[in-house]
Write a structure and sequence with these properties.
Helices cover 38% and strands 24% of the residues. The chain has 5 helices and 5 strands; from the N terminus they run ααβαβαβαββ. Strand 4 and strand 5 form a beta hairpin. It is globular. About 4% of the residues have low confidence.
């Protein structure tokens, strides 16, 4: 029984961890020198970001993580905060909203097969 549990943990649970947390994504950003940038959510809310980027998350007035819906909203937040760059957590399927936008320069720093972390600068 112990051996079966160990095998399941090794091959199933451990292989699922990278997609269930943004920890590796935040670590990639930090390793690239982006330790002070605010972290925004585009078309998602990442609850694991509460642990790994808590003091860097953009929040609503009631303290919840703010969800942004397009590049224009992100640029508006950057102007409001007078930020030259921000980090954006975005589901892979919405990545082109940043990478193909005329409003921002987007550099994909990494992904966990569900979410990508993107360095965004306004043009």
């Amino acid at each position: 029984m112990f051996a079966v549990v160990a095998v399941i943990l090794q091959f199933f649970v451990v292989s699922q961890v990278p997609t269930e947390t943004v920890k590796p994504l935040i670590e990639i950003a930090d390793a690239n020198g982006y330790t002070n940038e605010k972290v925004l959510n585009l078309n998602t809310i990442s609850h694991s970001a509460e642990f790994y980027a808590a003091n860097r998350l953009v929040r609503t007035d009631d303290g919840k993580q703010r969800r942004f819906f397009d590049a224009a909203e992100i640029v508006g937040e950057m102007k409001r905060e007078d930020a030259k760059s921000v980090l954006v957590l975005v589901p892979i399927q919405y990545l082109t909203q940043l990478t193909e936008s005329d409003l921002v320069e987007a550099k994909v720093l990494g992904d966990n097969t569900e979410l990508a972390i993107v360095l965004v600068k306004s043009k």
